[in-house]
Design goal:
The chain contains 18 helices and 34 strands. The strands form 4 sheets. A 16-stranded mixed beta sheet has the order 1-9-8-7-6-5-4-3-2-16-15-14-13-12-11-10, with helices on both faces. Strands 17, 18, 19, 20, 21, 31, 32, 33 and 34 form a 9-stranded mixed beta sheet that branches. Strands 22, 23, 24, 25, 26 and 27 form a 6-stranded parallel beta sheet that branches. A hairpin with a 4-residue loop joins β8 and β9. It is globular.
Length: 675
C-alpha cells in the first residue's frame, strides 16, 4: 500500500519530548480484584523500553517494546516482539525517516509519504501507548490527530478527580478517547501528563491498586450515562396502536414465511396478525411499512457476556434475548434492572452465574471457589439473586461438580459450562449438566488424551487434531447417545472456532468479510490478525480440516435430535449472524436454523407462551428483515428494525451512532393520523 499524507497539522504540535532523566513507570493489571499481569516502561529521554505480560484464564498477551519518540512525542521508531492473546508470535515494526513512514504488522504492512511523523496505531502493543496517544492529543489542534494506517483519534476531557489521601493523593483527569475502535475508551492521566490508569483494561499505576475500583466505578458511571443517552436517542416508542404492514411472518413451527400480512401491536403486545390490506389504516395507528420483507421473532445469543455497548450491537443485529454466561455479578444485576425499567436499551437478559475454581489458570468472572463449601454458598447466592443457571468453568474441581449440580437442581436452577480440566464430557453429562458450553469442549473429549490440560489454550489449539476424528467411532457414539438419553443440549459457539482456526495474518476471515469494511480501521486490523501458530502447510491443512469437522459435528448432533443453542461468546452482534450462517453451511436448513434461533430458545427458557413466535397475545419482540432468510440465511444481515416489547430500534441508526456504515435502511414510518 502506498499513499500520500500531509503532516502539516502535526508540525504545529508543541514539543512533548520525554523526560531527560531515566524514569521507571510501573503498572499492574487487575481482573475481578486479582493481579493478572504487569506493565513496566523504562523512559530515558526519547527512548522507551516496555515489558508487558498478562496471564488470565490460561492466556494473555506479552510484549517487549522499544520506542524512539520524536520531539513532538510521536514515535519515529518502534519494535514490538512477543505473543498475542493465544500465543501467536508477534514481530511488529514501524519507522519514520526522511519523509516516509513504513510498518509491518500481523494484519498488514505499508508505507506512506509523510512530511512529519504521523502516529502509528500498532496492532499488538502494550496499553502504555494509550497514555502517549493522550499526551500528544492534548497538544493537537482540536485534540484530534490523524493516525496510520488510516483514520483519526479524538480526545475529550470528561472530569477531574482526586484519589488517595494525604501525601499519596493524586490529582487526575479522565479523558475519553475515540476514533479507531468500535467504541470509545477512557484514559486517566496525572497532572504532569503521565499515565495513571486505563480502567477498562484494568491497568493502574503500581501502589495504587486500591484506587482502581473507584476509577472503574467512574468508568461504569460514564458508560452508563452514555448508554442512557443512547437509549433516549435511538428508541422509538409509539402512542397508540402500531401496524407493521405488508410483511411475511416467519412461522417457526412450519419454518416458512407466510402470505403478506399486517401485524397489529398495542403497548408491548401483539394484538393480531391479519391478511395484508392496502386500505387506509385506522385512525390513530402508526404504520411501519415492511415493504414485503420478512418479520421474524427476535434472535437469541445463548452464549453472551453482556456490556453496555454489546447491548446496542445486539439490537442492531436483531438479537432480542441473550443468555449471559458470566460477568461481574453486581454490574449484571444493575444492567438487568435498568433494562427492565426501560432506562437503557438492549435485549432481554437471562443470567447465568459463573463459578470457577482456584488455579494459576483461573478466569476472573463471577466467583472463584476455594472449597466445595464455598462453591455451594456461591450457588445459593446466585439463586437468591434470580440467576437461571450455574456455569462451571475450566479450573473447577471435577469432584465438586456432582454436589454443585445436586444443589443447583434442588434450587430449581440448571447447570451448564465448560468440561472442567481432567474431567470428560461423558462424566459431566452423567452428573447432570443441562447443556455443554462450546462445541470444542464437547469435541475435546474425543480428541485429547487423558491428562492433557484444557485450562490452557490447548482447549482451542488442540482442535486441529479434529482433522483426523472419526465421527462414527465408538467414543463419539457413546457421548452422543448419552446426550440424547439425558436430554443435554450444546451451546455451540462455532463462530469463535472459525475465527481462531481459520485466522491467518493479513487475511479477512470468511465470517468477518460481510461487515468488516463498514467498521473503524482499528477493529478491521484486529480482525485481520492470526490467532494460531502455523509452521507449515500441514498446520494450515489441519486447522481447516479440523474446522470442517466442527461443522460436521453440528450436523451430526442436529440429525440425532440434540438441541443446538446458537451462541457466540462475543459482543458485536455480527457473530450471531455468522453463527447462523455456519449452521446452514453445516447442512442444517435455513428454516430450521431460524427456528433454533427464535422459538426453540424460548422453549428452552420455558417462556414460549410469551415469546418466540409472532402470535396474538405474545410480547412484541421481533425483527424486520429485507429479503427471505429462509431461502438465503445471509439475508438475516439486512435487519431494518428490531423491536423489544413494542419499542422499535432501527439498526441503521445504531450503526451510525457507532460510526459504522449501515447495512440496510430503516423502514418508512407513517405517523398516526386523526379521523
Amino acid at each position: 500500500m502506498r499513499m500520500s499524507l500531509l503532516g502539516a497539522s502535526l508540525a504545529a504540535l508543541i514539543s512533548l519530548a520525554g523526560p531527560a532523566a531515566a524514569e521507571t513507570e510501573s503498572y499492574v493489571v487487575i481482573a475481578n480484584g486479582e493481579r493478572v499481569g504487569h506493565l513496566t516502561a523504562e523512559v530515558e529521554g526519547s527512548q522507551v523500553e516496555i515489558d508487558y505480560a498478562v496471564s488470565n484464564n490460561g492466556r494473555g498477551p506479552k510484549a517487549q517494546e522499544t520506542i524512539t519518540l520524536g520531539p513532538d512525542g510521536i514515535p519515529v521508531e518502534w519494535s514490538i516482539k512477543g505473543s498475542s492473546l493465544f500465543g501467536n508470535a508477534v514481530d511488529e515494526r514501524y519507522a519514520w525517516k526522511d519523509g516516509e513512514a513504513a510498518w509491518k504488522s500481523a494484519p498488514d504492512e505499508g508505507e506512506v509519504e509523510a512530511a512529519a511523523p504521523i502516529f502509528y496505531v500498532p496492532a499488538d502493543a502494550s496499553p502504555w501507548i494509550e497514555g502517549q496517544f493522550a499526551r500528544v492529543l492534548l497538544k493537537a489542534p482540536g485534540q484530534t490527530l490523524p493516525v496510520l494506517p488510516s483514520g483519526s483519534l479524538k480526545l475529550e476531557k470528561v472530569r477531574d478527580v482526586t484519589l488517595g489521601e494525604g501525601s499519596r493523593a493524586k490529582a487526575l483527569t479522565i479523558y475519553e478517547m475515540s476514533g479507531i475502535d468500535l467504541e470509545p475508551g477512557y484514559v486517566v492521566l496525572e497532572a504532569d501528563g503521565d499515565l495513571f490508569a486505563l480502567p477498562g483494561a484494568g491497568v493502574v499505576r503500581e501502589g495504587y491498586e486500591a484506587e482502581l475500583q473507584a476509577l472503574r466505578d467512574m468508568n461504569r458511571d460514564l458508560a452508563m450515562d452514555r448508554a442512557k443517552a443512547a437509549r433516549d436517542k435511538l428508541a422509538h416508542s409509539f402512542d397508540g396502536p402500531v401496524r407493521i404492514a405488508d410483511v411475511r411472518v416467519f412461522d417457526p413451527l412450519t419454518m416458512k414465511l407466510g402470505a403478506p400480512s399486517d401485524v397489529l401491536i398495542e403497548g408491548d403486545r401483539i394484538v393480531s396478525v391479519i391478511a395484508h390490506s392496502a386500505a387506509r389504516p385506522a385512525a390513530g395507528e402508526t404504520v411501519i411499512d415492511g415493504q414485503g420483507g420478512a418479520l421474524l421473532p427476535g434472535l437469541h445469543d445463548m452464549h453472551h457476556h453482556t456490556s453496555l455497548s454489546s447491548a446496542l450491537f445486539n439490537l442492531a443485529a436483531g438479537v432480542t434475548a441473550v443468555r449471559d454466561q458470566g460477568n461481574e455479578n453486581e454490574a449484571l444485576l444493575e444492567w438487568t434492572k435498568l433494562l427492565e425499567a426501560g432506562e437503557i436499551a438492549g435485549p432481554r437478559i437471562v443470567r447465568n452465574g459463573f463459578l470457577e475454581g482456584r488455579s494459576p489458570y483461573s478466569a476472573r468472572h463471577g466467583f472463584i471457589a476455594d472449597s466445595l463449601e464455598e462453591a455451594l454458598k456461591d450457588v445459593e447466592w446466585y439463586h437468591d439473586h434470580g440467576y437461571w443457571q450455574i456455569k462451571i468453568y475450566n479450573s473447577f474441581n471435577p469432584d465438586w461438580v456432582a454436589p454443585v449440580i445436586e444443589k443447583a437442581h434442588a434450587l430449581g436452577m440448571g447447570v451448564t459450562g465448560h468440561v472442567p480440566a481432567f474431567s470428560s464430557p461423558d462424566r459431566v453429562i452423567f452428573e447432570g449438566y443441562d447443556d455443554i458450553a462450546h462445541v470444542n469442549q464437547l469435541m475435546l473429549g474425543w480428541i485429547l488424551e487423558a491428562g492433557e490440560d484444557t485450562r490452557t489454550p490447548l482447549r482451542l489449539t488442540g482442535m486441529a487434531r479434529g482433522a483426523n476424528l472419526d465421527l462414527s467411532s465408538p467414543r463419539v457414539r457413546e457421548t452422543v447417545e448419552a446426550m440424547k438419553t439425558h436430554d443435554v443440549a450444546l451451546d455451540t459457539t462455532a463462530v469463535i472456532l472459525e475465527r481462531l482456526m481459520l485466522s491467518r495474518s493479513g487475511e479477512v476471515n470468511p465470517g468477518d468479510a460481510p461487515y468488516l469494511s463498514h467498521v473503524p480501521i482499528g477493529y478491521q486490523r484486529y480482525r485481520k490478525r492470526g490467532f494460531v501458530s502455523l509452521y507449515g502447510p500441514d498446520d494450515d491443512r489441519a486447522y481447516r480440516q479440523g474446522f470442517q469437522k466442527v461443522l460436521d459435528t453440528l450436523k451430526l448432533l442436529d440429525d440425532e435430535g440434540v438441541l443446538l443453542l446458537p451462541g457466540t461468546d462475543d459482543g458485536t452482534g455480527f457473530t450471531l449472524l455468522r453463527e447462523l450462517e455456519l449452521y446452514v453451511k453445516a447442512g442444517i436448513p435455513a428454516g430450521k436454523t431460524l427456528r433454533l434461533a427464535t422459538y426453540d430458545m424460548e422453549a428452552y427458557f420455558g417462556r414460549e407462551d410469551e415469546l418466540g413466535s409472532i402470535e396474538a397475545g405474545k410480547l412484541a419482540d421481533l425483527i424486520l428483515v429485507a429479503g427471505d432468510p429462509t431461502a438465503d440465511i445471509s439475508d438475516i444481515r439486512k435487519t431494518r428494525m428490531t423491536m423489544v416489547g413494542g419499542v422499535a430500534y432501527f439498526p441503521a441508526e445504531i450503526y451510525e451512532h457507532f460510526s459504522i456504515e449501515p447495512f440496510a435502511p430503516p423502514p418508512p414510518v407513517r405517523p398516526a393520523q386523526a379521523d
